Amino acid sequence: MSGRVQAAGTVAAGEVPEGGNDASLRLLRLLEEGGARFGLLEHPPEGQTVRASALRGHSLAAAAKCMIVTVSGGASGERQVLAVVPGDRRVDLDGVARECGGRRARLADRALAERLSGCVSGSIIPFSFHDELSVLADPGLFDEPTLYFNAARLDLSVALAADDYRALANPLVVRIAS
Known about the structure:
The protein is an alpha+beta fold. It has a single domain (about 10-175), classed as Alpha-Beta Complex (YbaK protein), CATH 3.90.960.10. Helices cover about 25% and strands about 25% of the residues. The chain has helices at about 20-35, 50-55, 95-100, 110-115, 160-170, and strands at about 10, 40, 65-70, 80-85, 105, 135, 145-150, 155-160, 170-175. A hairpin with a 5-residue loop joins strand 7 and strand 8 (about 155-160). It is globular and about 40 Å long.
C-alpha cells in the first residue's frame, strides 16, 4: 500500500470527499502527518461491520471493530475505554474489565460513545482524540497487514497498514476479543 488502495470507490491521495466532520478531518490529518500508508474508500453509508466489510471488499478479520466500553468497580472508579478487535470477533467485556482493573464492563450508552469518540454510532474510529478515552487493541488485530474501518463517517472508510495503526494510535495491546 503506498498511500492508495486499489478498489472501486477509491479516493485519490490528497483528496478528501465532502461531508467530513471534525473527527474525520483530525483522523486524516493524523494519518497524513504521521506518514501512514493508507487509502480512502467511498461507499454507500454503512455502520455494521459485516456489511461495511462486504462493501469495501475485504475479509471480516481485516476490519477494526471499535466499541466504547464503560468499566466500573475498580480503584479508579468508572472509566471509558475504546476497545478495538478484529471484525470477526466480539469484545470480551469481562476481559476488558480485568485489563482495566475493574469488576464490570458494559458497552457505553450511545450518547456517551458518540461524545467521547466524536463519531456517530457505527463509524467510531480506532483512535482516541479525547483525554478520557484510552485505547485497547486485541493482538489478533495485527494478524492482518491492512486494517479497514469507517473514517468517522458512514460513507467513507480507511484502509491502513496495521503497523502504521499501531505506531500512530499506540494502543495498549491486550487480549480483549472472544
